[in-house]
């Protein structure tokens, strides 16, 4: 027998598939290709190689992470000091702090939300905008022993965004918090504490005494995760918080076990399990880590003073019985050869044709071992002959079923050799026995050598122990029929999996599922409600008799009926094992609602609306929830499954405690020093090399530690990643940039409050606000488009598209454009008309009031749009805006306000407003009357389209000013353009003047539009190309740095040449005309024409500048 080299199972057989945790049923033999086995090993080897490269890059400094590390300076922290008892509303009448401070903003709000019951579904009845629809889900219950990392934070950020969005839409929302009892992890934590503090082991206590210690620890330390969830702003209904060991939940677990037993879906039988000798318990597949070894490696194993050698393959000979000759087998586990029952070869292997049907003699037990043939044997691995040890290898166990081979257990649950091995090995630790066996083989001249061997070593993630496959009598759940229903549910569309590509994974795994072992040899957990029956005067002690029941009394009655005995004469002994933690977790969507009772919550919120979780839990949790939910309730537990990607560090490594690269979200929220980060790594139980890599990565990534970013910035950064696709590589620098966005929001509202505070007239309601100027209409239409984008993206769960739309609107439309334009308007600066665009003389109070109202509603609506992602800062800013609004809000918190809808922004205007129906057939930019038509209250697509030209003109004008080194000067410029472009420039004249920082803009149309009466630009002007029909001209005045202009133009020319080459390469590529659609070719042609014209213009400008330089 040997450890795995590339798959879940032993490597000696070709085409072997994973058998699950422990399988005792036959599986269909896969392809017999002798080479099929080596292919799975390659991806694992490649993965291991990449991991090593990343580690070496970190240690050698070649990764370049240092150059992109988080750079920041300490900000002056503003602290909220107003006396606010927990649960009371925060005082927002205090002076507005000059800059954003996460600590100030996030203070007090959550306690108020929670005390007011805003997160309870019962709040739904009080909402004026309530709709008769329900949205329910559960949080994936984290382990009570753990703390959340950024992967958990991603789950919380996504789920809370969805929950808050639906709640604001008026849905009746239930989001249930929960915590998993984490059988193995919790028991280990408490055992270590007792050993450290009292010097006692678990076995020094009775089971009841030990469980009291566990409950004591849980009550003292088990609230850490709930504190983290509150810090993340999760709007959970805490009144329904659910712990998997709560009495009600425990009753549901018992009920589920009994029902499944009654249905014949749980049975007790013997099968192989993943066994941890350190824990003396079976563990689940998800608790088994694969340690990839490239060759000989010395590893520390719990219970051994010296390191143990792995990553080698040994060969030894089995002599033929009754014939001359021998069969040499290869193995990575010589200690298990005492349990060998056969030797297997491939039927087509020419080396062993003469050995078919022969028998070997075991050198130590004298047992006869048949030589069997099976097409699963990999002829290319080792010697091509493999030893078969069914009691200690998953694939050998399956092979034994095909060939009716016996099972011999030679290693006990504590990791020592069994009595069947003989006195020379009995009681010896398994890895100590390894060398004794090799020495004994050498003594008998049967040892044939040892060589390096790449392999995958299964290790218990909890204890660090090397996994031992052991044959045990356990309780198993029959999964095949339930799995078929789960597959069918997806194929029939009853259950929708998002992203869709996971449906293939779902179907493949469930179509090849094995029975699920649910027995765990622990004390902490749900003790299995099964009882061994001892009948009076029964002489057959080998036969096991079992019954199950919701209580011992029920089990006794069942035993009496089953075996025809009087209840009082029966002795019952409850199975000391507990159920796999994943069994109780699989019941969470309905047990949290009161199942098996038909509670009001069960009737209203089951099935759940959606399950959102990480893609790594598709098998261990999601599939089992679907199977047990359908079986026990008759319904699927949820209608949709939404998977998000895994979070990786900036070096591409999966965030894992075993790598020491996990980041506590609270450290990002509050900030942490590098010293404290390093202390956390030292506190962990890491391999020395992993510790070295982890600490070096921290020094490079966070030389100053992690800055205080705040909850809102962290949540927004997490949701800004595309969650339905590739893994997420999150850097703290990205979170920090989101904190800067928070400060931008803060300063925007600060300015808005100043504008509103100076106004004499109140702000009208959104329905009463009519955008008057072209820029008002543009920003209103941009808001409408943003709301529409958010609606569509939220419905398709594309949260990154929502955050992108909101970020772009607030930063690039509201702040960079509209606010910069509106500042002089509100300061009573005015604009005029004609072919020369410059400050005019007309600016009415009504226009200024309209601009104030538009600004207020743009900010207010945007805060509501952002609220699901950034609950703290939006609440703080929204509360401060309320006194200036058009009346008291219907609810006291933003989180209960209606989520903005595009339909409310195109509502019909009041009948008393004047209308201009000419807008129906004229472009909005050419309209003379500024009032919009009634069917387009805040939606003006023509304005948005026309303003694209304006943005390019502004960009080009700023570039020309920069080329001339003009920082404060406001020069005059000429625009040479087409008549239609001239109309657009006139329409947005004041915006062009203000945002380009120019004194005037002369418009010249060489072809048509003679009514403008404008002269062409002066000779020798500096030219900027807007597009192929529009140019800006800036007359170069004396004193301008000509040399600098020449350098800048030359650099621009070089860039344009590269771009043009790239476009030409596309155009000249084979089949361009046949494969590329016409509309795409048209865009490419326009781009190429603009590049060519700009190049020509730059060449002309360079000539003029060089001539001027010579004349000077």
From TrEMBL:
* InterPro entries given in the database record: aa-tRNA-synth_I_CS, aa-tRNA-synth_Ia, Anticodon_Ia_Val, M/V/L/I-tRNA-synth_anticd-bd, Valyl-tRNA_ligase
Location of region: Disordered: 20-95
One Pfam family, short name: Anticodon_1
- Annotated Gene Ontology cellular component terms: cytosol; mitochondrion
Residue ranges annotated as compositionally biased, kind Basic and acidic residues, are 64-78
- Extract one GO molecular function annotation from the record: ATP binding
Taking the record's annotation, the residue ranges forming a coiled coil are: 1081-1108
Q: Which class of enzymes does this protein belong to?
A: ligase
Give the reaction(s) catalysed.
Answer: tRNA(Val) + L-valine + ATP = L-valyl-tRNA(Val) + AMP + diphosphate
UniProt keywords, alphabetically: Aminoacyl-tRNA synthetase, ATP-binding, Coiled coil, Ligase, Mitochondrion, Nucleotide-binding, Protein biosynthesis, Transit peptide
Q: What is its EC number?
A: 6.1.1.9
Q: Where in the cell is it found?
A: Mitochondrion
Q: Name one GO biological process term.
A: valyl-tRNA aminoacylation
Domain Methionyl/Valyl/Leucyl/Isoleucyl-tRNA synthetase anticodon-binding: where?
776-972
- Where does the record place Low complexity bias? 20-42
- NCBIfam families given for it? PRK05729.1 (NF004349), valS (TIGR00422)
Q: Which family does it belong to?
A: Belongs to the class-I aminoacyl-tRNA synthetase family.
Q: What does this protein do?
A: Catalyzes the attachment of valine to tRNA(Val) in a two-step reaction: valine is first activated by ATP to form Val-AMP and then transferred to the acceptor end of tRNA(Val).
Q: What is this protein called?
A: Valine--tRNA ligase, mitochondrial
């Amino acid at each position: 027998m040997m450890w795995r080299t590339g798959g879940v199972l032993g490597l000696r057989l070709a085409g072997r598939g994973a058998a699950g945790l422990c399988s005792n049923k036959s599986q269909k033999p896969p392809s017999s290709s002798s080479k099929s086995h080596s292919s799975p090993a390659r991806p694992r080897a490649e993965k291991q190689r990449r991991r090593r490269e990343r580690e070496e890059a970190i240690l050698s400094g070649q990764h370049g992470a240092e150059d992109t590390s988080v750079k920041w300076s300490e900000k002056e922290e503003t602290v909220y000091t107003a006396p606010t008892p927990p649960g009371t509303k925060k005082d927002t009448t205090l002076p507005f702090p000059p800059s954003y401070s996460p600590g100030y903003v996030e203070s007090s709000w959550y306690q108020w939300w929670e005390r007011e019951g805003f997160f309870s579904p019962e709040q739904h009845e009080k909402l004026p905008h309530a709709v008769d629809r329900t949205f329910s889900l559960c949080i994936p219950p984290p382990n009570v022993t753990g703390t959340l990392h950024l992967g958990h934070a991603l789950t919380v950020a996504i789920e809370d965004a969805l929950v808050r969005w639906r709640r604001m839409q008026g849905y009746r929302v239930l989001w249930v918090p929960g915590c998993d009892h984490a059988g193995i992890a919790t028991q280990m934590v408490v055992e270590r504490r007792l050993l450290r503090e009292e010097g006692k082991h678990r076995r020094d206590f009775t089971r009841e005494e030990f469980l009291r210690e566990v409950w004591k620890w849980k009550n003292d330390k088990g609230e850490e995760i709930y504190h983290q969830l509150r810090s993340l702003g999760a709007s959970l209904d805490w009144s329904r918080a659910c712990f998997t060991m709560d009495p009600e939940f425990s009753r549901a677990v018992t009920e589920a076990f009994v029902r499944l037993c009654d249905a014949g879906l749980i049975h007790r039988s013997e099968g192989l399990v993943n066994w941890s000798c350190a824990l003396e318990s079976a563990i689940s597949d998800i608790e088994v880590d694969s340690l990839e070894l490239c060759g000989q490696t010395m590893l520390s194993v719990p219970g051994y003073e010296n390191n143990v050698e792995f990553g080698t393959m040994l060969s030894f000979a089995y002599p033929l019985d009754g014939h001359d000759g021998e069969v040499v087998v290869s193995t990575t586990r010589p200690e298990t050869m005492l349990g060998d029952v056969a030797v297997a070869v491939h039927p087509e292997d020419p080396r062993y044709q003469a050995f078919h049907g022969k028998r070997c003699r075991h050198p130590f037990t004298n047992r006869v071992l048949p030589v069997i043939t099976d097409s699963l044997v990999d002829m290319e691995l080792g010697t091509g002959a493999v030893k078969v040890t069914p009691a200690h290898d998953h694939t050998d166990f399956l092979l034994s079923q095909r060939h009716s081979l016996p099972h011999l257990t030679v290693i006990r649950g504590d990791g020592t050799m069994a009595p069947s091995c003989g006195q020379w090995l009995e009681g010896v630790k398994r890895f100590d026995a390894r060398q004794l066996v090799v020495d004994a083989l050498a003594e008998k001249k049967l040892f044939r050598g040892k060589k390096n061997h790449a392999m995958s070593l299964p290790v218990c993630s909890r204890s660090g122990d090397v996994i031992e496959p052991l044959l045990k009598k356990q309780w198993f759940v029959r999964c095949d029929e339930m799995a078929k229903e789960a597959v069918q549910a997806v194929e029939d569309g009853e259950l929708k999996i998002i992203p869709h590509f996971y449906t293939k994974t779902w179907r493949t795994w469930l179509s090849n599922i094995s029975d699920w072992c649910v027995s765990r040899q622990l004390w902490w957990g749900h003790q299995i409600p099964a009882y061994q029956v001892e009948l009076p005067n029964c002489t057959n002690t080998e036969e096991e008799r079992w019954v199950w029941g919701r209580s011992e009394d029920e089990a006794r009655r069942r035993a009496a009926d089953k075996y025809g005995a009087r209840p009082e004469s029966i002795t019952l002994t409850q199975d000391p094992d507990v159920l796999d933690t994943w069994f109780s977790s699989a019941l969470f969507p309905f047990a949290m609602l009161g199942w098996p009772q038909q509670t009001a919550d069960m009737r209203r919120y089951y099935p759940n609306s959606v399950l959102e979780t990480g893609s790594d839990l598709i098998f261990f949790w999601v599939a089992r929830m679907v199977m047990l939910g359908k079986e026990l309730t008759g319904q699927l537990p949820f209608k949709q499954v939404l998977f998000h990607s895994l979070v990786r560090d900036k070096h591409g490594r999966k965030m894992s405690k075993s790598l020491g690269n996990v980041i506590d979200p609270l450290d990002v929220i509050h900030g942490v020093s590098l010293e404290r980060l390093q202390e956390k790594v030292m506190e962990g139980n890491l391999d020395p090399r992993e510790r070295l890599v982890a600490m070096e990565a921290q020094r490079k990534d966070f030389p100053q530690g992690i800055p205080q970013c705040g909850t809102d910035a962290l949540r927004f950064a997490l949701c800004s990643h595309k969650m339905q696709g590739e893994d997420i590589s999150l850097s703290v620098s990205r979170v920090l940039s989101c904190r800067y966005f928070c400060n931008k929001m803060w300063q925007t509202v600060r300015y808005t409050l100043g504008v509103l505070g100076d106004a004499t007239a109140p702000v009208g309601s959104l329905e009463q606000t009519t955008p008057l100027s072209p820029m008002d209409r543009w920003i209103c239409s941009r808001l409408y488009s943003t709301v529409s984008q958010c609606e569509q993206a939220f419905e398709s769960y594309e949260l990154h598209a929502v955050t992108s739309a909101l970020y772009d609107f607030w930063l690039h439309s509201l702040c960079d454009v509209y606010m910069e334009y509106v500042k002089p308007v509100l300061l009573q600066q005015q604009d005029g008309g004609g072919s020369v665009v410059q400050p005019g003389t007309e600016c009415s109070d009504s226009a200024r009031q309209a601009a104030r109202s538009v600004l207020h509603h743009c900010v207010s609506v945007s805060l509501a749009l952002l609220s699901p992602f950034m609950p703290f800062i939006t609440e703080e800013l929204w509360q401060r805006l309320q006194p200036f609004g058009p009346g008291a809000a219907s609810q006291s918190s933003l989180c209960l306000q209606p989520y903005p809808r595009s339909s409310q922004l195109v509502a019909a205007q009041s009948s008393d407003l004047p209308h201009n129906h000419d807008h129906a057939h004229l472009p909005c930019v050419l309209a003379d009357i500024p009032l919009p038509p009634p069917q387009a209250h805040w939606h003006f697509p023509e304005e948005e389209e026309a303003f694209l030209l304006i943005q390019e003109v502004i960009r080009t004008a700023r570039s020309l000013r920069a080329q001339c080194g003009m920082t404060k000067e406001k020069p005059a410029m000429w625009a040479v353009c087409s008549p239609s472009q001239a109309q657009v420039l006139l329409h947005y004249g004041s915006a062009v003047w203000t945002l380009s920082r120019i004194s005037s803009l002369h418009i010249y149309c060489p072809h048509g539009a003679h009514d403008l009466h404008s002269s062409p630009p002066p000779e020798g002007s500096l030219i900027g190309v807007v597009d192929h029909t529009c140019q800006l001209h800036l007359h170069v005045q004396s004193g301008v740095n000509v040399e600098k202009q020449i350098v800048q133009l030359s650099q621009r020319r070089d860039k344009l040449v590269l771009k043009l080459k790239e476009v030409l390469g596309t155009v000249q590529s084979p089949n361009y005309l046949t494969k590329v659609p016409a509309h795409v070719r048209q865009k490419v042609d326009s781009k190429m024409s603009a590049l060519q014209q700009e190049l020509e213009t730059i060449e002309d400008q360079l000539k003029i500048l060089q001539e001027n330089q010579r004349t000077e």
